[in-house]
Amino acid sequence: MYRFDDFLADPETWKLSRGGHDIHLEPVVLKLLIYLIANRTRLVTRDELMDTVWGDKVISESALTKAVARLRKALDDDLAAPRYLETVRTQGYRFVAEVQEIDRPDGPDSSIRKTRARLSGWSLLAGAALVTLIVLAAFWSRTLLDRSSQEQAIRSLAVLPLSNLTGDAEQGYYVDGLQDLLNTELSQLPGLRVTSRQSTKRYRGSELPATDIAKELGVDALVEGSLLREGSQIEVSIQLIDGRSDTHLLAERYTRDTSHVFDLVSDMARAIRTEIVSVTAPPGSEVPGHGLTGPVDPRAIDAYALALTHMDRLTSDGIRIAIEQFQEAVTIEPEFVLAWGRLAVAYAVQGMQGFAPPRESIEQARSAALRAIEVDSESYVGHFSIGLVRLWTGDLNRACESFKEALRLNPSDPYAIHGDADCLMFAGQMDESIARMRDLVTVSPFSVMHNGAVVYHLFLARRYEESIAAVRVARDRVPGFVFHYTLARVYWVQGAFDKAIEAERLELEWRGDTVLLAALEEGLDAAGPVGAMRAMAEALVLRSNESYVDPFEIGKTFARAGMVDEALHWLNRALEYGSPEITYLAFRPDLDVLRDDPRFEDLLERVYGQGSPIIARP
Predict the structure, then answer these.
(1) Poorest-confidence range of 252-256, 283-287, 297-301, 446-450?
(2) Mapping DSSP to helix (H, G, I), strand (E, B) and coil, where does residue 515 land?
(3) Is 0.90 surpassed by the pTM of this model?
């Protein structure tokens, strides 16, 4: 046996204890410890550990990293100042503690005699108990089996970022692109909720145990793996892990030519599908297709993956480059349905964020979305993107039909869930709409965009304290989540003007908008909070003479300044320009100052249609 500090590792009984108390470890983790101790005089490489500790089982490097993390946690070791397990970056591990090899306290003969004595005294009673157990087993077997299958069913899953084994950090975009394709395939499986890719990025290179990651993401299972790309070949290793028990359910390795990446993704999704036990997925159900099979030009995949990387930045330049790359992908492969769908979303985001005149962006989104549906009528991304276009152009009934169809094809898509929540709000079902928005955070728990959407919907629902609380929760959970923007509006309608001005100031500082910040301060000094809003609105008007500024932003800023004529002028221009925010006009609490004006009533009718029940919602 091996003793180090107050730990005792027994390779015969496969036990680890500390101070006489057993420490329960997964067998492979204990095997890893004993192998490292036995070879403590040298550095043990990562390849050697994967080949010896796991034997013939194919695993990814991330599985080894997580096993080491679990071992370090069991030993209460510190990665930065290790007492037991030293990590040699990119090479392997070394056990560094002083170890004593000691004899077992009892010999095998003694142990056998004690065991026989105990068995002899209890044999008769055991025989009677066995008969009873057999009878009970016959009675309970079906119930227990049914309960076990229900408890073990995998209803939710997250695909973690794949480890990049290329040795080239610049190839990370390709690795992320493959993760996106696999995530898309699995998210279309009936009965399975799949976490958004954006919410898994924080776990790249993480040494957290699988159980901890699964708990944070709120899922039953995880998919992890690695990718190696050399020339025209890619090799991918994946594992399916039950996040509740840390049990490895599947380990596979695939090697394909880069021109067959879609077939590779389909093979991986199919293997995962066969291992998933889900009471909601009917037996024999298959993963829907992605609209492109067989050989594909690798340049199209490169362009698609690079576009995703830039789109994740959510900046003006990022969206512009993403659009260019998606266009490159569909030029190379005109039947690349996912690229057409993502191109539509990129155009929609460009218009929604005010990075370009929205009417032009929305029409470009419409063309790309319809092309995606033309290529594949079962394209969920095509249906939800055309839903966005219809939503923002006032075709609300058809928009809701499109979101419903997208959710039929992919129940986990966060954009379609958001659209569904909007439809419930327009139908006057605000409580149901908020509940649906909370579903959005379940699917995408660490996304800044989707957590922000919940905050905004609570503001539209006039549930101000809940909106403020949602910001606090998101800030604790999501790195980089600030959302001073909506807080400023919440505080304003509550009459907490000092808090509103401070939130506005923090938002402008965070954006680096020195011009508007100076206007706010000058207006505040001259005429208080209302003066600050007026000065900001006038600064936005001046800016609109040089570059595009969303007229809705100008209009609602004038409204906070109490300048009704100016506010209505710019809100009417927002309708003309096709501003996406005009869709939510009837619900905006910060526009209540305009509601008694007949001109505002007229604007509502032009947005929603004469006699629409939406007009009277607030």
Answers:
(1) 283-287
(2) helix
(3) no
